[in-house]
Design brief:
This protein is α+β, with helices and mostly antiparallel strands. The chain has 16 helices and twelve strands. The radius of gyration is 24 Å and the shape is flat.
Length: 402
């Protein structure tokens, strides 16, 4: 897929919430983490499950490995960047032109690859592309920013594991000649590097560098988890938390790993830590509920359900999975609540409107179902879908009139 050019003044590049490019979703007293100098201490759970056996060593990439390019790759880029034909452009625009010329056939694949491999193969996922952009920018001292972007979810649900995809967009910032005079990065013009952005994509939080590197480690941990290497997944997750101690995706994955090993108390301690410190508690709480059900801890189940109803999230699509899960568990009222919460933020999800209409009709609320179907019809552009929604709406209106 080709990249899309976006330019404009970016504002508000301050603090971050949390993002996954590839996320793995899934009573007794929980030990509360201590605070020293305002820095949270991670739960003191045993790591004996994940310690390497004698003679083995856990191999983890350093952050510098993420951005390493070969000498030939560096020379290829610098020759273009410094060529006389490019000098009429500002540096960040020259870098973008290089990407435009040499990565025009870059193919999106759901693989996590480092910058040199991404450039050699011209394939990778959104994080791979962001790594390559950053590696090139570092060669010529151009600042890079990152921002979450959310599209209509495509959920892969199998074996009690949910894989969900989010997206990260890179920004190349103009150089700041007034840097010493307090002109901030978010006040400057930037060029966005992205795959074709969808018309209905929602922009999310801005991601700082340490958070972005935590996301890379977490993606590698998710790869290890799916490959069955739980030890590697654990240590990569811990590496992510060294970059960002509040990173909810890695906290969640570590809790899942302990649960897989049968240490439910340790899993609970990690979930409690995440619920206390994470700015995105929705995914954590929904996965914590699985553990609470396994422990048959009804007070904990009630607390988590209440927290879910009060929580908010940068990504509106987290409610899609909760609604789907509630519907699958025949918890119709909960499913309606989560679909309604989703549609307040993303009313254009006509499939969610259709699912909501079906549930409202089952609950004996035909007028609410009619409104949901009308919304589905309003936001659907596919002729086949529009015909289906029109037929269902007509049938429902006839029933209400009788």
């Amino acid at each position: 897929m080709q990249m899309a050019l976006k330019t404009g003044r970016q504002t508000g590049w301050l603090n971050t919430k949390l993002l996954l490019c590839c996320a793995v979703l899934l009573s007794s007293c929980a030990r509360q983490p201590l605070i020293v100098n305002n820095a949270p201490i991670l739960p003191a759970t045993s790591e004996h499950w994940f310690a390497p056996t004698a003679g083995q060593k856990v191999q983890l990439p350093a952050t510098s490995d993420f951005y390493r390019l070969t000498a030939a790759q560096q020379q290829h880029f610098l020759a273009f960047f410094n060529a006389p034909a490019q000098q009429e452009l500002a540096p960040h625009q020259r870098l973008y032109r290089y990407l435009e010329h040499h990565l025009v056939n870059f193919n999106y694949e759901g693989k996590n690859t480092m910058a040199s491999v991404t450039m050699a193969n011209m394939t990778g996922n959104c994080v791979s592309l962001a790594l390559l952009v950053t590696a090139l920018a570092q060669l010529v001292d151009i600042e890079v920013g990152y921002r979450a972007s959310y599209a209509e979810p495509v959920l892969d649900i199998s074996a009690n594991i949910v894989l969900s995809s989010a997206h990260v967009r890179s920004y190349l910032f103009e150089q700041n000649p007034l840097k010493d005079e307090g002109v901030m990065k978010f006040q400057r013009t930037a060029v966005a590097v992205d795959y074709f952005p969808g018309r209905l994509d929602r922009l999310g939080a801005k991601l700082d560098n340490r958070h972005f590197e935590a996301m890379i480690y977490n993606n590698l941990a998710a790869d290890a988890f799916l490959a069955g290497d739980l030890n590697q997944a654990y240590w990569l997750s811990r590496a992510a938390l060294r970059q960002d101690p509040h990173y909810s995706a890695s906290i969640n994955l570590i809790a899942i790993l302990y649960r897989r090993k049968g240490d439910l108390l340790a899993a609970q301690q990690w979930y409690e830590f995440g619920m206390r410190y994470s700015s995105q508690p929705v995914t954590l709480a929904s996965n914590y509920l699985v553990l609470a059900d396994q422990m048959q801890n009804q007070p904990l189940i009630d607390r988590l359900n209440n927290q879910l109803r009060l929580a908010d999230d940068d990504n509106p699509y987290v409610w899609f999975y909760l609604a789907y899960q509630a519907e699958r568990d025949n918890k119709t009222a909960d499913a309606v609540y989560y679909y309604e919460k989703l549609l307040k933020k993303a009313p254009y999800l006509h499939k969610a409107n259709l699912a909501l209409a079906k549930l409202q009709f089952q609950l004996g609320q035909p007028e609410s179902a009619r409104r949901a179907l009308h919304e589905a019809l309003q936001y659907s552009y596919d002729p086949a879908n529009r015909q289906m929604y029109q037929a269902k709406l007509h049938a429902l209106e006839q029933m209400v009139m009788e």
